Amino acid sequence: MSSSAETDIPEDVKRKLSLYEKLYNISALRKIVLLLFLALAWQFYSAYIDNPLMFPSLADTMSGLAEVVRSGELPLRMTTSLRVIVVGYSGGVLLAGLLTVLAITTRPGTDLLEILTSMFNPLPAIALLPVALLWFGLGYPSIIFVIVHAVCWPVALNIYAGFMGVSNTLRMVGKNYELAGLAFVFRILVPAAFPHILTGLKVGWAFSWRTLIAAELVFGVSSGSGGLGWFIYEKKNQLDINLVFAGLLTVIIIGVLVEGVVFKFIEERTVVKWGMKF
Fold first, then answer.
1. The pLDDT of residue 221 is above 60
2. How confident is the model over 103-121, as a mean pLDDT?
3. Mean pLDDT taken over the chain
4. What is the 3-state secondary structure (H, E, C) of 193-255?
């Protein structure tokens, strides 16, 4: 019995993996190798063009990054941006959730969501800056307003698409348990649609950063201080191009950490654990 079972196992499964194959199967190690390759490409290309004002080397950028971190300037700017983006992102996600729940539970809500998304989703958030200035003045309330706009519509569309993609079988399960309204949404629709919801949250996070940096490049100073976008703008005016790249690199590092730690943790505790992704 055991011999026949063993013959059914493919040869590539029975043989032991080589060291190279074991290392290759480690996702984190593959990504580290790719990052090292990109870092080397950056360094070699900067040496090739030999123009620090156009493209500073990775070594100069890291040196400048360490300098502004030690001085406390970059951590202050980063904290300012993170504080603003958390408020704007949370507001956008909350508004998207409310609109989507209204849309999935009532027909007028569906019509309202379709009308609003068709009107505002194509509208670039940065185009609302003049209106935000008139309504909220020069400062971070205006930036928060445009971040909420940037986050709300892509998140709402992804959540709504996830809700509409829930199978009729799961919907019937909810009806059999006599679930209705918010209970039906949170116990049936949200778990079933969570891969779409998580995708929407990731897209919204990316949009919020783009909007924040763009808005701060235009009017990032409030009471003599600003965030990462204003830091980049200041250093460009001062021709500290290595610090401009240091600011850009900081935004990239924050994005990678949030994607690889926060969203990865949520994904592993939800869609992977529930068997929705392998």
1. no
2. 90
3. 84
4. CHHHHHHHHHHHHHHHHHHHHHHHHHHCCECCECCHHHHHHHHHHCCCHHHHHHHHHHHHHHH
Residue 80 belongs to domain spanning = 57-272
The mean per-residue pLDDT over the stretch 5-30 comes to 66
Task: Count the Cβ atoms, other than its own, within 10 Å of residue 158.
Answer: 23
66 is a domain residue? yes
Residues 150 and 189 in one domain: yes
Q: Is 174 helix (H, G, I), strand (E, B) or coil?
A: helix
Tell me the C-alpha to C-alpha distance, in Å, between residue 230 and each of 168, 184, 197, 213. 50, 45, 32, 8
End-to-end distance of the chain based on CA atoms, in angstroms?
31
Scan for tokens 């900081």, then name that residue.
250
Q: How far apart are CA 99 and CA 79, in angstroms?
A: 30
How far apart are the C-alpha atoms of 42 and 136, rounded to whole Å? 41
Same domain, 45 and 64: no
Cβ pair 60, 207 in contact under 8 A? no
- At residue 261 the predicted structure's pLDDT band, cuts being 50, 70 and 90, is confident
Tell me: pLDDT of 208 over 50: yes
| Residues 30 and 130 occupy one common structural domain | no
**Domain shared by 72 and 168, yes or no:** yes
Quick one: pLDDT at residue 127? 85
Residue with token string 């063009």: 49
Beta bridge partners of 225: 222
Judge contact between 143 and 212, C-beta under 8 A: yes
